[in-house]
Amino acid sequence: MTRVAVEPVEGGLFVKPWIFIRGVPAMKFLPPEGPPEVAFAGRSNVGKSSLLNALVGRRGLARTSNTPGRTQELNYFVPDGYGGEGARLPPMALVDMPGYGFAKAPKAQVEAWTRLVFDYLRGRVTLKRVYLLIDSRHGVKKIDEEVMDLLDSAAVSYQVVLTKTDKIKPPAVSRLVEETRRAIARRPAAYPEVLATSAEKGMGIDDLRVAVARAVQDR
Ligand SMILES: Nc1nc2c(ncn2[C@@H]2O[C@H](COP(=O)(O)OP(=O)(O)OP(=O)(O)O)[C@@H](O)[C@H]2O)c(=O)[nH]1
Ligand SMILES: [Mg+2]
C-alpha cells in the first residue's frame, strides 16, 4: 500500500542531480538539525562512497579510493536546487562517513574518526536510517557487531547492505544474505531484510533507492 506513495518521491529524489555541501571533521561542526539524514557506515574500504555515487548516479561525487581511509569527514550530500533556508530545506541529506576498523593510519587519527562516527551514530536526532555496509568477501566482523550493538542501544534504525557482490559467485551471495539475515534477526533496531549490491555492476541499486526513499518517508 505504501508503494503508491513512495514511487514519485523515489523518482524525485534520485532523478535530480546531487551535490556535496559540507565536510564535518568533528561533532561541533555538524549543521543544525534539519532534513532527515541517511548515513552510510562500514569498515574502511567496504565501498561506502562508491555506493553513494551509484545511488545518486554520479561517479566521482564522493571520492573513492583503493586505499582504506579515503573518507575522513562526515560528508553531506543533498539534491541540488534548495537554498537550505526555511521552507527551502532539501527533503533529505545523505551522509558518507569515514570507515572504522582501519589500523594503518596514525593511531590518534583513527581514534578521532572512530569517535566522530560513533558519536554521530549515537547522538544525531535527525538521523533516520543507517545503511551498514558489509563486504561480501569478508562478512560481518566483530567491529560491525559493535556498531550494531551501539545502534540497537541508541534505537537508531539500520539496514545491512552487502557490497561488492560482483566479487563472489551468485550462490555465495544468496547464502551470505541468508546467513546475515539469521545473524541480525534478534537485533531490535535492524531492518530484517538484507540488501545485496554491487556499485560496480549496478546490482541492487534500485532496491536501495526505494529503501532510502521509504526510510525518509517513514515518520
Ligand atoms: N568490484 C567492486 N569494487 C568496488 C565496489 N564498490 C567499491 N569498490 C572498490 O572498493 C574500493 C573502496 O571503495 P570506496 O567507495 O572508496 O570505499 P569506502 O568504504 O568509502 O572507503 P573509506 O572511505 O576509505 O572508508 C575502491 O577501489 C572501489 O572501486 C563494487 O561494488 N565492486
Ligand atoms: Mg569513503
From TrEMBL:
Cofactors named for this entry: Mg(2+)
Domain EngB-type G: residue ranges: 34-218
Gene3D superfamilies: P-loop containing nucleotide triphosphate hydrolases
One Pfam family it belongs to: MMR_HSR1
Domain of life of the source: Bacteria
InterPro entries in the cross-refs: G_ENGB_dom, GTP-bd, GTP-bd_ribosome_bio_YsxC, P-loop_NTPase
Nucleotide-binding among keywords: yes
Keywords: Cell cycle, Cell division, GTP-binding, Magnesium, Metal-binding, Nucleotide-binding, Septation
Keyword Protein biosynthesis found: no
Annotated function: Necessary for normal cell division and for the maintenance of normal septation.
Family, similarity comment: Belongs to the TRAFAC class TrmE-Era-EngA-EngB-Septin-like GTPase superfamily. EngB GTPase family.
The protein's name: Probable GTP-binding protein EngB
